[in-house]
Amino acid sequence: MISKYKERQAAKEVVFQEKQQCLNAMSDFLDNLEDNQGLDEIKSAVETLRNLEKKSIIESQHKFLEEISSLTEVGITTLKKIKKEGSVNEGMWNTPGKKRPHKSTVSDLDSFDIDAIRNKINEFYVVRKEVPTLRALLEELRSSIGFSGCRETLRKILIDNGYEFKKNKNERAVLVERYDIAAWRHRYLREISAKRMEGKPIIYLDETYIHKNYKPKMSWQGPSTSGAPQPSPLEHISPGKRYIIVHAGSEAGFVPNALLVFSTKSRLADYHHDMNAENFNKWLKEKLIPNLHEPSVIVMDNASYHTVQQNKLPTTQTRKAEIQEWLNSNGIIYEDCLSKAELLCLVQKHKPDPLYVADELLKQHGHEVLRLPPYHCDLNPIELIWSSAKRMVAKKNINLPAKETEVLIKTSFGRITSEDWKKMTDHVIHVENNYKQRDKITEEELEKFIINVGDDDSTNTSDESLEVEFLDSDFEWDE
Question: Global pTM?
Answer without folding.
Answer: 0.62
